[in-house]
Design a protein that fits this description.
The chain is α+β, with helices and mostly antiparallel strands and about 70 residues long. The protein has 2 helices and 2 strands; from the N terminus they run ααββ. Strands 1-2 form a two-stranded antiparallel sheet. Strand 1 and strand 2 (about 60-65) form a beta hairpin. The longest helix has 8 residues, at about 30-40.
């Protein structure tokens, strides 16, 4: 992750991402939607509620998820 991504999730180093499931950073009510989107070939931008690593369990923010840019 880049520095902005680390800061957004309350992480200080890329090693804090390694070995962790993406869903650990997403509010459980959004897991099904994220998993469904991951199965699609084409994804439109969508929002999910995410959880910071360094805050209280109820510290939630919105993430805009968009597909990677095609070259």
């Amino acid at each position: 992750a880049n520095p902005a991504g680390l800061a957004m999730f309350g992480l200080s180093d890329n090693s804090e991402f390694f070995g962790r499931n993406l869903l650990e950073f997403i509010v459980p009510e959004f897991h099904k939607a994220v998993l469904q989107q991951m199965q699609l070939e084409t994804v439109q931008p969508y929002e999910v509620q995410c959880i910071r690593n360094d805050g209280p369990a109820d510290l939630i923010f919105l993430c805009l998820v968009s597909p990677p840019c095609k070259k």
